TrEMBL record:
Family of the protein in this entry: Belongs to the DNA repair enzymes AP/ExoA family.
Site (Interaction with DNA substrate): 248
Cofactor(s) listed: Mg(2+); Mn(2+)
PANTHER family per record: EXODEOXYRIBONUCLEASE III
Protein name, as recorded: Exodeoxyribonuclease-3
Biological classification of the source: Bacteria, Pseudomonadati, Bacteroidota, Chitinophagia, Chitinophagales
Residues of the site described as Important for catalytic activity: 218
Active site, UniProt feature: 106, 147, 248
Keyword field contains Hydrolase: yes
Residues under site feature: Transition state stabilizer: 149
Presence of keyword Manganese: yes
Highest taxon of the lineage: Bacteria
Amino acid sequence: MRIATYNINGVNGHLPVLLQWLNETKPDVVCLQELKAPQEKFPEADLLAAGYQAVWHGQKSWNGVAILARGLELTETERGLPGDPEDLHSRYIEAMVNNIRICCLYLPNGNPFPGPKYDYKLSWIKRLEQKAEALLKAETPAMLIGDFNIIPTDIDVYKPERWLNDALFQPGVRDAFKRLTEAGWTDAIRKLYPDEVVYTFWDYFRNAYGRDAGLRIDHFLLHPAVAGRLTGGGVDRHVRGWEKSSDHGPVWIEIK
């Protein structure tokens, strides 16, 4: 089973790229982030025509997450990250697919640092850690998937010294990512490529993609009940080079 995550950076604006990639690679499950579309503007019909059913949590102009499935039963189980009823951002959706709990998330960026947006990021991470702890206790196979907006280590960023004042690279958020992996969640891409430079995002500016000046911020964290079934994974880096593409590349893993 191939599971992918893709920050599409506008599902309608980049729909041709999304459909081309889906047709080319045919993943079984896809987590999308940054839909930037209200609930009623999600391109459900186009995705159904491509063979994918979907559940999604939209928001006008910002955020938005979705889970797609091809030929598999898809049952939504939660919408919105628990813990703060006043948080109306569309950043979390969860569904059961093939007896695996797929948790699609778009963690806050947090810039500028310091400031209220970074404080919101830290509070969101705290809620995510609480959710992750509950998922571990439940023992149902689960995956935390999406754009975490966290650069876990120095190897995950081009010229780390330039990111010392960025919210994606602060010790507070990196420590939180480390706590998740130490609690039992497996960082799938780093498990597969322990010492290699792997990027999932290249800025639109300064020819970042051409220079391979990227970041690794799109992650799969695997529950112990599924981590042992990991057989492969990678980044469809070439998609980032397509015309009118997102600034992220699709990331994927395969499990038995």
